[in-house]
């Protein structure tokens, strides 16, 4: 039962009842994650499909651990009266017709956490489309940002946006439970496909209102310090030296520091930041020639010895069998009554006190809705769901750098937490990418501390004593060396939830190695699958970083929920390595006779004829004519007899003409949001996808607004930019520090008069 006492070794969500009314992969993944964390998840299905081979191998993974129950609308409403969480993924019209809107259900059960996960959005032209990852990546701007040779949208072979959507939905559900622990009231969240696209694209979809801002472009070659290279043996590897310091370290390892003084570079890293510039071209030529002289293994060993982030391109099978995956307990086996033994990704989050549930295949049941759960006695004082964000009153210390770990705190801020970012005195290295830094940290207060000094360490410890959550991604053992390691923090503040984010997880020899998103696209087989028979392709959108952030936030929320029951905090671990397994859960799920996962190619248009991107006279559209019936409808609409003729038939029509025609024939299709002026798209604007943030050096910037919507969400949570340590004084005054003490921490020199006055105060 919810709220019952539990042994600390139990799953965080033991006793929580989740009613999942779903057909989409995103909602099913949300339910899967809640089940992994211990919740009793009942998925409403029609009909039960446990006795046939699933249409998608991922279905076995999506539904593991659940009870599958066929129910009608009235039965669903009755079951919702006894649930803690309801996850529903209908389109807006479907939600209204089924009477499963939050106001409908919470009138019966005001303690319910209602999470609506529409496939695209809550309103607008494309909101009623059936779920399809290709269409979501089209309207969410993902396809329009993929690397390409020709200027065209590219179809991702892995549905990372949909997978991320599922993780965000699960996080919203647990955030609502945390809020209910403190108020007793339910909460209402909307987590749409656009929220997932916005989370994945937040660092890239940024436009200047007052002046143009830098855009990285879509070249498959990318930039010389952040791209694929081919070695002498024909093997590929990704050099991931995101910052100037890392690139200099790489050149030093190669004994090629002379590259920095090439005339086209002139010692300025900024001359390597624009694709196609003379500096980029000159350095590319030098490095391509150099790397062609030795096999891939030589370069990997060279860079590993210098602690430079770099990775060879591997296949999915090689990744699944790797020691890194094994060390992180990345895969598990279950028995399926039709498929036999199935190997699939394990739970991607680890806890120091709680356990996560071992996976088992979904179980089909046919009980009446009244028998799903025992009836509960409800508090009569609860009149209505809360209108507050569920984490209001929660304080988070973000002592992390770059993207994945800070995004954990950013998501918690969107759930209502107060977040204080603690940077080194010289700033987060991610500030080298100023616009991206602002996008990720726009809802935080900014402080700066020198943790190498005793005042800096003492101040961090004092901040943590007054906080609920600490998020960090320092190298293993670094906090211990500073005297403020996890054991010290747990002793000083037993209720603290600590979230540790790393690249390789706890993978033995790799545990301290640096790593960025494309490193794991390369290692995990994702880049090889995207490139197909052509060269491997790493996507520019940071799918591993953003999904690790979502999983980290989910782990923190689960630990906070359990703390509300046990009174004790714990440590949460997530990593890019574990996320890389989770992101390809469908592709890595294997059993005897499963079909081969999808592979792409250069400028991959989509998985099949009729299910791909097509050019029109004034732009591109995405078409999802999946299945024989839809394929015939597409042919009938265009007056052609073969799917190979669709491309030429659409090429003579405008985007609007094509979309109207296909809509009349009930063929799912939508416009592709392309790179240029993407945030001006009417569908994105109607759904309040972006807002304005001001930055002194750039003026007004348009960037992604929110990663979840709570309640009516009528008031925009304003974003802001801040300088390194810009809010330090304000935060420390709130902590009770004197101005003199703050000056000491900040290294502000004291005048003789101030020092004399301070001595008099101490003496008195």
Automatic annotation (TrEMBL):
* Organism whose genome encodes this protein: Rhodococcus artemisiae
Q: Which GO MF terms are attached to this record?
A: transferase activity
Per the UniProt record, which EC number(s) apply here?
A: 2.8.3.-
**Pfam families noted in UniProt:** CoA_transf_3
- What class does this enzyme belong to in the EC scheme? transferase
SUPFAM superfamilies this protein is in? CoA-transferase family III (CaiB/BaiF)
Keyword Cytoplasm attached: no
Listed name of the protein: CoA transferase
Q: Provide this UniProt record's keywords sorted from A to Z.
A: Transferase
Q: Does the keyword Hydrolase apply?
A: no
